[in-house]
Amino acid sequence: MKSRIGELIDAAGYKKKYIAKELDVSPTQLSNWISGRSYPTLEKAFKLATILGVKVDDLYE
């Protein structure tokens, strides 16, 4: 499953550092989600989707 998190963050105009802080995760952890090396918990995915104004399904292709 390919992550669209990075492109959605960029499209929303947020800095990745800001998103990591809002989700209470390290920038490295966020980077891993963006690259598909790991995935957020369901709770973090819902919070990320809310911040970005998208559905959780939109975070992945």
Structure description:
The radius of gyration is 10 Å and the shape is globular. It has 4 helices and no strands. It has one domain (5-54): 434 Repressor (Amino-terminal Domain). It has helices at residues 5-12, 16-23, 27-35, 42-52. The protein starts with a helix and ends in a 9-residue tail after the last helix. By secondary structure, it is mostly helical.
Proportion of β residues?
A: under 5%
The domain count comes to 1
User: What's the CATH architecture name?
Assistant: Orthogonal Bundle
CATH class label: Mainly Alpha
Class derived from helix and strand content: mainly alpha
Mean pLDDT: 95
Q: How is the CATH topology named?
A: 434 Repressor (Amino-terminal Domain)
Cα-atom Rg, whole angstroms? Answer: 10 Å
Give the N-terminus to C-terminus distance in angstroms.
6 Å
- Tell me the number of strands: 0
Helix content: 55-70%
Number of alpha- plus pi-helical segments = 4
State the fourth-level CATH superfamily. Answer: lambda repressor-like DNA-binding domains
Uncertain spans, ≥5 residues at pLDDT below 50? Answer: none
Shape: globular
Strand count, sense and barrel status of the largest sheet are: none
Q: Give me the strand/helix succession.
A: HHHH
Task: Spell out the blueprint of helices and strands.
Blueprint: H1 5-12, H2 16-23, H3 27-35, H4 42-52
Feature tags:
61 residues, mainly alpha, 434 Repressor (Amino-terminal Domain), 4 helices, globular
Describe the structure in brief.
This protein has helices at about 5-10, 15-25, 25-35, 40-50.
